[in-house]
Write a structure and sequence with these properties.
This protein is of the alpha/beta class and about 80 residues long. The chain contains two helices and four strands; from the N terminus they run E-H-E-H-E-E. A four-stranded parallel sheet has the order 3-2-1-4, covered by helices on one side. The longest helix is centred in the N-terminal third of the chain and has 11 residues.
């Protein structure tokens, strides 16, 4: 990861989080990481094209992470 790139960590690869990440990916200079509770990422262009990284479970956001976005369903909070 380059130090001049925005680093965004999403907790929950749901519809809202994926839509926001996809919109952000249209701008250059953004690294996206999604943490989810399923072993495999959802079938979404962000993961199919390798634009975003998916991790199973939670991990600590990398140093220099710009934002952490909680994008899980309301009943999961």
């Amino acid at each position: 990861m380059s130090p001049d790139r925005e680093r965004i960590f999403f907790v929950g690869p749901g519809r809202v989080g994926l839509s926001l990440g996809y919109a952000l990916s249209q701008e250059s200079g953004v690294d996206l990481v999604y943490a989810g509770r399923r072993p495999e990422p959802p079938a979404h262009p962000l993961f199919v094209q390798g634009t975003a990284r998916y991790v199973y479970g939670l991990e600590r956001p990398a140093p220099g992470t710009t934002a952490v976005i909680l994008s899980v369903p309301d009943d999961a909070v």
